[in-house]
Amino acid sequence: MNNIKRIKVGMASCGLAAGAQEIYDILSADLGDKLEGTGCIGMCFREPLVEIEFTDGRNLTIGDVDPERARLLAEKLTTEIPEEWIIYDTASKEFAKQPYFSKQHKIALRNSGIINPESIEEYLEKDGYEGLKKALKMPGDDLCQLILDSGLRGRGGAGFPTGLKWKFARRSQNDQKYIICNADEGDPGAFMDRSLLEGDPHAVLEGMVIGGCAIGATMGYIYVRAEYPLAIERLEKALIQAREKGFIGKNIFGSGFDFDLEIKKGAGAFVCGEETALMHSIEGDRGMPTLKPPFPAESGLWGKPSNINNVETLANIPWIVFHGPEKYAAIGTEDSKGTKVFALTGKVKYSGTVEVPMGSTLREIIFDISGGIKNDKQFKAVQIGGPSGGCLPESLLDTVVEYKALNATGAIMGSGGMVVMDEETCMVDVAKYFLNFTVEESCGKCTFCRIGTRRMYEILDRITRGEGKMSDLDELEKLGHQVKNGSLCGLGQTAPNPVITSLKYFRDEYVAHIEGKKCPAGVCKELILFTIDEEKCTGCTLCARNCPVDAISGEVKKLHLIDQEACIKCGKCYDVCRFDAVIKE
Amino acid sequence: MVQMLEELKPMLAKYKGERGVLIPVLQDIQEKYKYIPPDSVAVISKELRIPVTKINGVITFYSQFRSEPVGKYIVRICNGTACFVNNAESISDTLKEALKIDVDETTEDKLFTLEKVACLGCCSLAPVIMINDKVFGKLDSTKVKKIIERYQKEQPDE
Fold it and tell me: What predicted TM-score, i.e. pTM, was given to this entire model?
């Protein structure tokens, strides 16, 4: 016990959802003073996670900690911890060689899962607010140039050089300027910003103060989704601590620079991720985009020059200022510098957040770091960039992660959501899912986005029901281009991407739905049929007992039959059969 | 209306004279009542001098705001991409069947309201649902049924 320095429990949203609070409570009975919570450790697939820090510097990470394991763990701390519990051990070279660890490079997530996000002292121990000290001694123009030299581009997805954006805002002359953090992470399937805010809120605050200092803004706003209550709570705590220490407020570090910050909660509108819509929402209006120019750098929030950066962009800033732009620019490719955080989900073995250097291939991320596909299934596609992005096939897995290369495929870098799909995912259904999302989230201002996406959705719906025509595919392409060109903001301009890319790379699946009236993945209910294999059925009655509509008949130890009229194609029988006797076709 | 005015006056006082307050005000009201009572709109309008049309415009624009009262337990079905590819649709069907209501409806006993949300952000536990503030992950139809039964008996923590 005496050789233990600290014990940390991963208490970000995923960890808590997996039961981390209960684990924390169990452990605290025995280990009270050495125990603390930390942010996202990144290995969501093994939550809840506990990390033990020994006084000699050794770190042990233990996964799948259920209540029983937690109780045993509290006992075993004095003896040996079973090997199979350990998912990482800093004292063992073997672990470091595993691609999950060796292929990652953490800059934005440098403290997440390492420090207690509710303790400013721990952030300070990790050179926290040192970047700000350095920034305050620099002229604003030099600071903008420094970020420009680092090659950092906007991590929200569009990839505009951050230093250049800052220069534009700096050049605008006004008595009041604003810096805004866009934490309205709306892409379904993306949670990088949530992890960052929950795991290292001070990094984002520090990035904002440095940004304010560079462009001459004295007031900042963090616009964060209301769906992220824990991120909001930790930001609020961090803000109080930073104020107490004088990192935010009047005359910061005696430099004469004043800066204040306010947290604004979003109210659930995807379009508010768009800069102008976000500012209208802060002003208390409907979050509808407006025409640019004027750009926010000239006339933004309340008509004043404003600069908006994404969470990940801002979290990189303190590191870049502290370590120098050369060090950041040394990582990555010619086109894209530094690292990128991705949230890996879907059918991969190890889902969670990862941070890789730019220039890594999709294959490395999905297969080496994230362990490939669950349950030995076949990889089919990876969806990058959420509703604005695209679905890429196996043949493009060697594409490197950088803005230019990803744009060339028809997908986009996006904010970092990466959803992996296997042979059981229907690409037409996925395209329909994204279009449905856009239809619901379109603010309605532009006709093409409001009505065009709905027409596209209807066509896709028709195809998934087996009522499509081959001419529908041309219609989808035509409409897709019209929606792209006829929309004011990023939402409409990118909304057709999931359809256009899946048509480009998975056209045969569309054709199978239309001409063959089949869904190759076995997803679209109108196009599949469940039957029972005479040879394999043992008459165990399991399927009949599980059928919600009593569509399966048959006596014990005799062949069962599915009444096709009554069947609702829920697939329950297919899932429960232990003899693979239910056939889906 | 008079009663609503009395109830809301202290809450609205801190927002008087400030700009950009409409969304936080509505969030406060929804936190108190779990929805935006129609009477409160008139009170906000009068107290903060914001036109009723603008208030209603904002309420209808943002998915967070509800104009109908809700049940004791709000069941949110995550419809994020990760949940979607992990068969969230069957979770949603099971819930509709178990509660005998559709999405955006409330059960007759006022115990449950069913909602679909864009993404709860715990994608690695997909498919997930959230009941009030508690997240349930790695679900299948059987697990969902059991969870709902516990809540129906009003013994959620059993």
Answer: 0.92
